[in-house]
Write a structure and sequence with these properties.
The complex is a heterodimer of chains A (570) and B (118). Chain A is an alpha/beta fold. Chain A is built from 16 helices and 25 strands. Chain A folds into two domains: 243 residues, 3-Layer(aba) Sandwich (Rossmann fold), CATH 3.40.50.300; 225 residues, P-loop containing nucleotide triphosphate hydrolases (Rossmann fold), CATH 3.40.50.300. In chain A, helix 13 packs parallel to helix 14. Chain B contains five helices and four strands, in the order H-E-H-E-H-E-E-H-H. At the A-B interface, strand 6 and helix 6 of A face helix 2, strand 4 and helix 4 of B.
Chain lengths: 570, 118
């Protein structure tokens, strides 16, 4: 509003964008599109224990350390020394900043019992103190924490309200970016309703306990003159300071890769049409207890590290040492990759925070480690309403996709055919879904897997048996019998049967071949005999013919002889 | 203090001046910011009151915070004008233009609360 007025009075028609002061709290700057309104007061409210003071302190300290803007903290509740101790746990050295004249901490102490009111007064003293503090170091940032303490120290609330209104206007005139903290009241944002004086930007912090798990959340209630994220965002306070889970792009605009990432299991690569998962895709490995979900994850990570890629492993059920030891038993040496910095484990009990807090933490770890591959083992460890699980996992999958990270999630299925809550809620997010199953038959349990889906590639539709061997996961050809897929000893028996059948088939062929040979020789013999008899006959006939001819000749000669003898002259 | 309020003691009421509990030297400091009507009223009211009740056993120091703003934090000044009783111990404060004499006398322990009640 002030902006508009200024423009009109200056007679210009072009609009200048609202200047913003970055807080240095990454997610918050993202969701406010740049930070708090510069040169204006912002109200930060929330119930006790929400982290208002830490938030405000972080704003000041980041201002000094990252943006070179000195700050003033006027504390109405905590003494300077207590404040120093409190933020020391976040790794901030406040005493040093005070020493370097970058920060002034002024503790305003009002003890009602010591004060008697007589006649009219104003809060000019506060203005003088604040003005002096600001001017002494050229402060650009001011925090008033928690100014409503004045209401419990002084009686005349009419004067207080008028003076607070004047104070906020004065802060604007001073051009400092201020954070005013306020305790959450019944039915209104602050106990004494000071939100009506601070109308530029209001941020609400919340600390909710659901099913014994606490989640801190932040919401920008209003931000005059700027668009902003309107949802509630989880935030985290730990030894690395404050981080807000940033909003990821609402649109699905991330670019995709055609590159295949090998799964680490050769047989599984072959089942996937492109020889692995797409880079940047989300993969779900679901299965019952003991089907080797973590081992699949281990193989994936092991192969990736061997290629020199960076992997981040979020473990929610086992400690890093335990995982390393277990993977050792199937022939993977993950320790070497931890040592050379390619692999990092982040372990936490699921119940440590709400899963949104986990997500915030995971996001921060991803930012810091910058991995190509992440593993979340397992997502079924998260408990909560399914829509919340869904929304947070969507965000995690989005974060990974936007960064081109291939994410492998494992999920523990419940017995039976029903999908678990977490599976159902994430199934549509996953690009590839590998389902691990147990097959019980002939008094034994065998493991099979199949690809439930794999987007964007032609993949095997077969059930395949696999074994967890000393050398990792080994895929075995599955036998389809009359009762379905045969595994384990049934498969071995089947194999034996098939060998036997093959042998007997071979023997039968041999037999036929021999018989044929025998037949052939018999026929040939007959032919030979016939030919022999024919030849005999032929020679006999020949002889007869010769004899006949000879006789003819003889008869002829005899006749002429006789004629001669008889005296017949030719 | 609360007794006082409930009884609705009016300023300027005739009071029993014989009951004065503090008999030592009074060291008073009055913080103001510039020559505002409230400041001037406070200074005038204080002088009159001291002459009446603490003749010859008081010292008044008037501090203008517009001149010496760095002094505000030391005495925890928030409201103005503020009258601070440095001596005798313990520290006492009265805020406002000191127009309500009764409140000032009670605030400075010049008169005990119970004794002032008629």
């Amino acid at each position: 509003m002030a902006l508009k007025r200024k423009n009109t009075s200056a007679g210009t028609t072009h609009l200048t964008a609202l200047r913003k002061t970055p807080t240095g709290i990454k997610g918050l700057d993202a969701l406010t599109l740049g930070g708090l309104p510069a040169g204006r007061p912002t109200l930060l409210c929330g119930a006790a224990g929400c982290g208002k003071t830490l938030f405000a302190m972080t704003f000041l300290i980041n201002g000094v350390n990252e943006f070179g803007e000195p700050g003033v903290l006027m504390s109405f509740e905590e003494r300077a020394r207590d404040l120093e101790t409190n933020v020391a746990s976040l790794g901030y050295d406040v005493a040093d900043l005070v020493e370097r004249k970058q920060l002034v901490i002024d503790h305003v102490y009002i003890e009602r019992a010591e004060i008697e009111e007589s006649g009219e007064y104003d809060l000019e003293g506060l203005f003088v103190r604040l003005g002096h503090a600001i001017d002494s170091i050229g402060a650009k940032r001011v925090v008033l924490d928690t100014i409503e303490a004045l209401f419990s120290g002084l009686d005349d609330s009419a004067i207080l309200r008028a003076e607070l209104r004047r104070l906020f206007a004065w802060l604007k005139d001073k051009g400092v970016t201020a954070i005013i903290t306020g305790e959450r009241g019944d039915g209104q944002l602050t106990r004494y309703g000071i939100e009506e004086y601070v109308s530029d930007c209001v941020i609400l912090l919340d600390n909710r306990v659901e099913e014994q798990v606490t989640t801190r959340r932040l919401r920008v209630v209003k931000y005059r003159g700027s668009s902003h994220g309107t949802n509630e965002y989880p935030f985290l306070i730990d030894e690395h300071g404050i981080s807000v889970l940033p909003i990821t792009s609402a649109e699905l605009g991330h670019s995709v890769s055609q590159e295949a990432v090998p799964t680490g299991v050769p047989g599984l690569d072959a089942m996937l049409g492109i020889g692995g998962f797409f880079r940047g895709s989300s993969v779900l490995v679901s299965g019952l207890a003991g089907t080797g979900k973590s081992t699949f994850a281990g193989e994936f990570v092991n192969a990736a590290c061997a290629r020199g890629e960076r992997c981040l492993f979020f473990a929610f059920e086992e400690s890093p040492d335990q995982i390393v030891r277990n993977m050792q038993s199937v022939g993977m040496n993950l320790r070497q990759y931890i040592d050379n910095g390619l692999l990092d484990f982040q372990s936490a009990r699921p119940s440590l925070y709400g899963f949104e807090m986990h997500l915030a933490r995971m996001n921060r770890d991803i930012e810091q480690f910058n991995p190509q591959i992440i593993v979340v083992d397992p997502i079924s460890a998260f408990r909560g309403p399914s829509f919340e699980i869904h929304s947070t996992l969507v965000r995690l999958a989005d974060i990974c996709k936007s960064k081109g990270i291939t994410a492998l999630f494992t999920s523990l299925s419940s017995a039976g055919e029903q999908m678990t809550e977490s599976e159902r809620s994430v199934s549509s997010l996953m690009d590839t879904w590998i389902s691990l199953k147990d097959m019980e038959a002939n008094g034994e349990r065998n493991r099979v897997l199949y690809l439930l889906k794999s987007r964007g590639m032609n993949h095997s539709k077969q059930l395949r048996e696999y074994q967890l061997t000393d050398n990792g996961i080994h895929m075995v050809d599955a036998y389809i019998g009359p009762d379905g897929v045969m595994t384990g000893t049934a498969r071995i028996a089947q194999e034996a049967r098939e060998r036997e059948a093959a042998l007997s088939r071979k023997q039968a062929t041999e037999r036929r071949r021999r018989e044929l040979a025998r037949k052939r020789s018999a026929v040939e013999r007959q032919i030979a005999e016939l030919r022999a008899s024919l030849e005999t006959e032929e020679s006999e006939v020949e002889t007869l013919i010769q004899q006949e001819e000879a006789r003819e000749l003889t008869i002829g000669s005899e006749r002429s002889e006789m004629a001669t003898i008889r005296g017949v002259r030719p | 203090m609360s007794d006082m309020k409930n009884n609705g003691q009016m300023p300027g009421n005739p009071t029993d001046e014989s009951v004065e509990v503090n008999a030592g030297e009074f060291s008073l400091r009055l913080y103001v910011a510039g020559q505002t009507p409230k400041s001037l009223a406070a200074i005038a009211n204080l002088k009159k009151l001291c002459e009446t009740h603490l003749a010859d056993r008081y010292t008044i120091e008037v501090i203008d915070l517009l001149v010496t703003p760095q002094l505000a934090a030391g005495d925890q000044i928030v409201a103005l004008p503020t009258l601070v009783r440095q001596l005798p111990e313990p520290l006492k404060r009265v805020i406002g233009d000191l127009s309500n004499t009764e409140r000032v006398l009670v605030g400075l322990d010049i008169r005990s609360k119970t004794a002032s009640t008629p």
